[in-house]
Amino acid sequence: MRLDKLLANMGYGTRKEVKTMLKAGHVRVNGTPEKSPKTHVDPDADSVTVMGDEVEYREFIYLMMNKPGDLISATEDAQDTTVIDILQPEDHVFDPFPVGRLDKDTEGLLLITNDGQLAHRLTSPKKNIGKTYYAVIEGKVTEEDVAAFSKGVTLDDGYHTKPGELTVLHSGEESEIELTITEGKFHQVKRMFEAVGKKVVYLKRIKMGTLELDPDLDLGEYRELTDEELDYLISNSGL
Ligand code: URA
Questions:
Q1: What's the CA-to-centroid distance between 124 and ligand 1, angstroms?
Q2: Of the residues 122, 189, 207, which should be mutated to test ligand 1's pocket, given the most ligand atoms within 8 Å of the CB?
Q3: Could you tell me if the CB of 187 is within 6 A of ligand 1?
Q4: pLDDT of residue 152
Q5: Which residue, among 149, 147, 175, has the nearest Cα to 160 in the 3D structure?
Q6: Which domains does the chain have, with CATH numbers?
Q7: Which of 27, 48, 137, 239 is least enclosed by beta carbons within 10 angstroms?
Q8: Is there an atom of ligand 1 within 6 Å of 203 CB?
Q9: What's the rounded mean pLDDT across residues 209-228?
Q10: Is the CB of 189 within 6 Å of ligand 1?
Q11: Helices 116-123 and 227-235: crossing angle, nearest 10°?
């Protein structure tokens, strides 16, 4: 990898800024001052320092966010603030993106990464990775709904969903449920309830594969996955 790319990726500035830093002699490779941005380095084998500080290279970043109900889960948007806009600059430099989409008004677990392979595995319907949602539903959710969801329901566009595992936590004028689905069609949870004549009034994702939303994260907060969470997620997503 080119030295300027490595330094820019690690947040030491734009390529131009990095070039100036190199010219000034602030960067050493294996102890020797290096001024050319084109120099190739092996991030695993070479030691790179900036003003004496060792640069720790990493390719991927994995963040868990508790998405609030007023952010768009996209990398950029002309009108609204996105989940990427609120990341700290040191995380932004990795060019991460949200894995799968949550509606603007949906809260909860969002994985943000630049690891395209993992993202693909987690969202591909072929991989059968469960996504679990907690929801508040207007009206009584019944055992008939549980049975209907277990066979899949037909959405407004005629698509018949894969089975969903519906658990009724509380049934009343407003019901509370948990639903696990393995696909991610547009507005899927909302439309599955519409298919049985009910309305989702609050939606929050609480689990994706083996990854559970950290209850200590307030809305709008995020943190890196622990090594354990990441290992578990990767080994259970068929990678
Ligand atoms: N299903 C929905 O309807 N909305 C979401 O944000 C996620 C799943």
A1: 16
A2: 189
A3: yes
A4: 98
A5: 149
A6: 3-54 (3.10.290.10), 62-125+211-236 (3.30.70.580), 130-208 (3.30.70.1560)
A7: 239
A8: yes
A9: 97
A10: yes
A11: 60
Q: Write down the residue that tokens 């519409």 correspond to.
A: 194
Query: 52 C-alpha vs ligand 1 centroid, how far in Å?
Result: 48
Pocket flag, ligand 1, residue 190 (CB < 6 Å): yes
Predicted local distance difference test score (pLDDT) of residue 56: 86
Q: Whose CA is nearest to atom 3 of ligand 1?
A: 187
Ramachandran region of residue 125, left (φ > 0), alpha (ψ -120 to 50) or beta?
A: alpha
**Eight-state DSSP code of residue 133:** E
Cα–Cα dist 197/23, whole Å: 67
The pLDDT tens digits for 202-215 are: 999 999 999 999 99
- Residue 226 is given by DSSP the state P
Instruction: Please identify which of the residues 4, 103, 216, 218 carries the catalytic annotation.
Output: 103
Q: What is the pLDDT of residues 118-175, one digit of tens each?
A: 999 999 888 999 999 999 999 999 999 999 999 999 999 999 999 999 999 999 999 9
Both tokens of residue 176?
């509370």
Catalytic residue status for 103: yes
Mean pLDDT across the stretch 17-23? 95
* Contact assessment for residue 22 and residue 4, using Cβ atoms and an 8 Å cutoff: yes
Q: What is the C-alpha separation between 87 and 65, in angstroms, rounded?
A: 10
Pocket perturbation via mutation, ligand 1, pick of 83, 131, 133, 161 by most ligand atoms within 8 A of CB: 133
- Nearest-atom index, ligand 1, CA of 103: 6
